[in-house]
Amino acid sequence: MKTKRAFNTNLLSVVFITMALLISATVFATADEAKVKVKNVFSQVETSLIKLKKADTLTKNNIRDVLNQYLLPEVDTRYFTYKVLNKNMAKVPDDLKASFIAELSQQLINTYSNLLNKYNNEVINIGQSTLSKSGKIAMVDITIVGKNKTNKAVVKLLQSDELNWLFFDIEVEGISLLQTKQAEINASFNKLGVEGTLSHLQKINQKVIED
């Protein structure tokens, strides 16, 4: 009887250990997948920047075009916008939500563009990837190494319902784009209201295009 009980206990131990190993393997695989996503996107961006540099066409607008082509489709623009709007989300009418998503998405692209607009054949290195406790958010280190300066950033990705990794924030030298925009939008809502804030965002984005 004791032998049977011991056997069952050992069997349960084996099952639990196996499950733990499988879960652990899944977590590491997921972290690696987030890193691969970032590496693939920035590899395409870097290749395009090198071509622009060689052709002497490395303009702000061309850099934004590259980011709109390769980065924007990999951004969870809805999640980013809703996080930026935060408590102000309840004030936005349904018919204006798409406009806010479009304008704030361009703000995100503009931030990446500012990080790259002085590109001079720097090497974009993708570092380690770590997961949040929930496993739903990944943080991937990026280092842009130049001859005279090195910029460090952390890209944040969210796991979608389809188990894909999508960008939603970037920290440059410890400063979060999402949190910065959140503070700006909150102040703008208090001062300009919903439509005034949207108009302000549209004017900023238009000015960036024209510069």
CATH class: Alpha Beta
What shape does the CA trace take?
Answer: globular
Whole-Å distance between the termini?
Answer: 83 Å
**Parts with pLDDT < 50 across at least 5 consecutive residues:** 5-29
H/I helix tally: 5
Describe this structure in words.
With 211 residues, the chain is an alpha+beta fold. It is built from 5 helices and 5 strands. The protein has a single domain, classed as Tgt2/MlaC (Nuclear Transport Factor 2, Chain: A, Roll). A 5-stranded antiparallel beta sheet has the order 1-2-3-4-5. Strand 3 and strand 4 form a beta hairpin. It starts with a helix and ends with a helix.
Short key terms for the protein model shown above:
5 helices; 5-stranded antiparallel beta sheet; 62% helix; alpha+beta; Nuclear Transport Factor 2, Chain: A
List strands and helices in order, with pairings.
Blueprint: H1 2-54, H2 60-70, H3 77-85, H4 94-116, E1 123-131, E2 137-145, E3 150-159, E4 165-172, E5 175-176, H5 177-210
Antiparallel strand pairs: 1-2, 2-3, 3-4, 4-5
Helix pairs in contact: 1-2, 2-4, 3-4, 3-5, 4-5
Brief account:
With 211 residues, the protein is α+β, with helices and mostly antiparallel strands. It has one domain: Tgt2/MlaC (Nuclear Transport Factor 2, Chain: A, Roll). The chain has helices at 2-54, 60-70, 77-85, 94-116, 177-210; strands at residues 123-131, 137-145, 150-159, 165-172, 175-176.
